[in-house]
Write a structure and sequence with these properties.
Elements: H1 9-17, H2 23-36, H3 40-43, E1 44-47, H4 49-65, E2 76-80, H5 107-114, E3 118-123, E4 143-144, E5 147-151, H6 157-164, E6 170-174, H7 181-186, E7 190-193, E8 214-218, H8 221-232, E9 249-253, H9 263-278, E10 282-286, H10 292-317, H11 323-331, H12 337-358, E11 363-367, H13 376-381, H14 383-402, E12 406-411, E13 418-423, H15 428-446
Parallel strand pairs: 2-3, 2-6, 9-10, 9-11
Antiparallel strand pairs: 1-3, 4-5, 6-8, 7-8, 7-12, 11-13, 12-13
Helix pairs in contact: 2-4, 5-8, 8-15, 10-11, 10-12
Length: about 450
């Protein structure tokens, strides 16, 4: 049964539906693997065995009766530790929230439970979700699947590690500036950033509410589609036959996202574009100068909102925080209200320009992360290095958040190098359908 840990969530669901996999045994397999894993304490903040066992038993009864609630009914998943869970601590990776125990589940957790997903537990994360690296000396720093001495990426660090190390079939995280996609890319997973407002954030510990989104970290695009449907309480869309890429038009973004591109992501990105062209796709380099202003002002947009939410608590108890994270929050206090409003007006104008420029393309492409996972020890000992690596890690993913898009990252076949596809607001179904074809094309690299 250990092989179940490495199957896609979709395949596990199909196995349950066919009677080949018992949800109770499946849950115990994952729970046992967590208990035995040497890095489990760096991945899971806490497990929920009693809840999971009850949910697995209920899923097993439904499977026997032929009344399954969804394609993933009975499949065990992990939850980032900023989703409220009734009677179980939700601390968002911060000592500021130590001992915080909600009395009800987040809306999205309630919905997913009603669709039959089984909760394994809560995963570690960057403190209050305000870092793309996943470094958290205050609680735990999750390991990268390729090297446990390197960070997993953040802020959904434990979420990615739980799937990559075979300790969950899928994970649910949040993405405010790249927090689903960075750890997905660095751990060779598929990760979906949803359009802001699409999936309920009720019951999430917030960071910047105008940018906060919920999304899955998975082994495959199909899994992303199935988990998204479960999070929304609906049946998944029919992704149809595997799409071909002939005559598909892709915009390969050149503005900002190729600056300071490290050697490994650069090589993986250009090889990925060559594979798409070989499959018949049209890939055109496209500049988007309207990005430059918002990218330069994004720090003010994020820190101002984050400081508005957390500033008072940080002023009182900020000494409990990891100093670089605290400094990011405090930077928002220096931005005036008028400057913040003006920046948002400029951002909305840039979004309109982007939509007009990119409307004729099937998706916009860029390297998901321009850098590789940094070494934990160096990040802890070199303050300037931490700052530059954190900002670089989140730079490319931030494009989709700023432009109000949905986006998916896919493994390229090169370790810790992802390819990002961005689609228009609310276009998740279309983007995921297209991403299946890209996924199939890129997976050929890994088999050669």
């Amino acid at each position: 049964m250990d092989e179940w840990r490495w199957l896609s969530a979709a395949d596990l669901g199909r196995g349950i539906g066919a009677g080949r996999i018992d949800p109770v045994e499946l849950h115990e397999t994952f729970l046992g693997a967590i208990e035995a894993h040497p890095h489990a304490g760096r991945i899971y903040a806490r497990t929920t065995p009693e809840r999971g066992r009850a949910e697995a038993r209920a899923a097993a009864r439904r499977a026997r009766a032929g009344t399954r609630l969804s394609p993933l009914d009975g499949v065990p998943v992990s939850w980032k530790d900023l989703f409220d869970s009734a009677g179980v601590a939700t601390e968002a990776g911060s000592r500021l929230l130590a001992g915080r125990v909600p009395d009800r589940d987040a809306a999205v957790l309630r919905t997913a439970t009603a669709m039959g997903l089984v909760c394994l537990g809560k995963t570690h994360m960057s403190e209050l979700a305000f870092s793309g690296l996943g470094l958290n000396p205050k609680t735990a720093t999750s390991p990268n699947v390729h090297d446990p001495d390197r960070v997993a990426g953040g802020s959904s660090s434990g979420a990615a590690a739980s799937v990559a190390f075979g300790l969950a079939a899928a994970a649910i995280g949040s993405d405010t500036g790249g927090s689903v996609r960075v750890p997905s890319a660095w751990n060779d997973l598929a990760g979906l950033k949803t359009t802001a407002g699409r999936v309920s954030c009720d019951g999430l510990v917030p960071l910047a509410e105008r940018f906060d989104t919920v999304g899955p970290l998975c082994r495959t695009v199909e899994d992303c589609a199935l988990v998204l449907a479960a999070l929304e309480g609906r049946l998944p869309p029919d992704l149809g036959a595997m799409p071909g890429l002939a005559d598909r038009r892709f915009a390969a973004l050149t503005t900002c996202v190729l600056d300071d591109l490290r050697a490994e992501p650069a090589s993986a990105y250009h090889e990925s574009l060559d594979r798409l062209r070989a499959a018949g796709a049209q890939v055109e380099e496209v500049a988007a100068p309207e990005l430059e202003g918002p990218m330069a002002e994004s720090g003010a947009l994020y820190t101002t909102e984050a400081c508005g939410i957390w500033g008072e608590q940080i002023a009182t108890n900020g000494t409990q925080m990891f100093a670089p994270i605290r400094a990011r929050f405090e930077a928002g206090a220096d931005v005036s209200g008028s400057a913040y409003v003006a920046a948002w007006r400029r951002l909305e104008a840039a979004r309109r320009q982007w939509a007009a420029r990119m409307g004729g393309y099937d998706a916009v492409l860029c390297p998901t992360v321009p850098s590789m996972p940094p070494d934990i020890e160096r990040l802890m000992g070199d303050g300037p290095y931490y700052v530059t690596e954190n900002l670089l890690a989140l730079r490319n993913t931030r494009v989709a958040n700023l432009m109000g898009l949905c986006a998916v990252t896919l493994p390229t076949g090169a370790p810790s190098c992802g390819l990002s596809l961005m689609g228009g607001p609310g276009e998740e179904a279309r983007l995921l359908h297209l991403a299946r074809g890209v996924e199939a094309t890129l997976s050929e690299r890994a088999t050669h």
